[in-house]
Write a structure and sequence with these properties.
- Helices cover 71% and strands 0% of the residues.
- By secondary structure, it is mainly α.
């Protein structure tokens, strides 16, 4: 036994978290576990994989142009310039996943701020904020993305900003509904009676109790951001070559769908796997964090 009781408490806390009711529910959701494992493996592969490959994503092997998968030194084949598809796929994964996570963080920040303010203050402030959210939701997302992306210089930061600016509204509506319900609870009224400031009540009392739907919304928002980046880049308004992304790999493969279909199948499969995995994790978290669930 350690002389420092905090050192003994750490494994107990970790074991308690792993065996908590929410984690047990999540582990019973097989698709969610599959999605979580897939996301972890894809992230590790994209971060460390390019350093382990014999070819970089920019190396051109002109003698191996259009090499099919598993037919030579290039495991997933090569593109029209003779570049290794596996190396480009992993580097593109870095960009697409980074865009997805960064856009999620920015969208969640905006959505949470608007939703908390609207749900807490209600009245004129809350009504004005939610009517603004409704107005933003009236615009079809794909047309809004394309219209704005046609007016800005495409780059990774601008694409992140663009996707976040068109995906925070759903988060705001979820948070607003939760905060509006929580502000009438006894603990919130007690904080008001004790003289706590509005900011303290919103940040310290209400927001932590609304964390479950926020976590689920964040997971699904990553999937939405990856998909949004893919079809913006596919249409030529997103990440520009030579920087690879799953979307512009699909865009570059359009002319070779019949002669070299693997050029489109491989990045398309990566997008499908990533988006589906995040959706599975979101479904699992929703079931695990829902207090109305009767599962043990």
């Amino acid at each position: 036994m350690s002389l420092d009781p905090t050192l003994d408490a750490l494994p107990a806390r970790a074991e308690g978290f792993w065996n908590s009711r929410g984690m047990r529910r999540f582990r019973r959701h097989k698709l969610a576990v599959f999605g979580a494992v897939t996301i972890i493996l894809m992230t590790l592969a994209c971060v460390f994989g390019p350093m382990l490959l014999p070819y970089s994503d920019t190396f051109i092997d002109i003698r191996q142009r259009f090499a099919p998968p598993f037919s030579g030194p290039h495991i997933l084949g090569t593109d029209p310039l003779g570049r290794d598809i596996l190396a480009r796929l992993l580097m593109a994964g870095r960009i697409s996943l980074a865009v997805g996570f960064c856009a999620m963080v920015l969208a969640m920040g905006i959505g949470i701020a608007v939703g908390v303010a609207a749900g807490y203050y209600q009245g004129v402030i809350g009504a004005a904020l939610m009517r603004f959210v409704d107005a933003m939701l009236c615009f079809p997302t794909i047309f809004l993305l394309l219209a704005i992306s046609a007016l800005i210089q495409p780059s990774v930061p601008s694409i992140v900003m663009l996707i976040a600016m068109t995906s925070w509204m759903e988060v705001a509506r979820v948070v607003e509904a939760q905060i509006r319900s929580l502000r009438t609870r006894e603990f919130a009224q007690a904080a008001v009676a004790m003289g706590s400031s509005n900011i303290r009540i919103m940040v310290r009392e209400l927001l932590p109790n609304a964390i479950a739907p926020i976590v689920v919304a964040a997971t699904l928002n990553v999937a939405h951001a990856i998909l949004a980046e893919s079809y913006i880049s596919f249409l030529g308004y997103g990440i520009q070559p030579p920087t690879p992304s799953w979307g512009n790999m699909l865009e570059n493969a359009q002319s070779y769908l019949t002669s070299a279909p693997w050029l489109a199948i491989i990045p398309g499969a990566a997008i499908t796997l990533a988006v589906t995995s995040f959706n599975f994790v979101g479904d699992g978290l929703r079931d695990a964090l829902d207090p109305r669930m009767d599962l043990p």
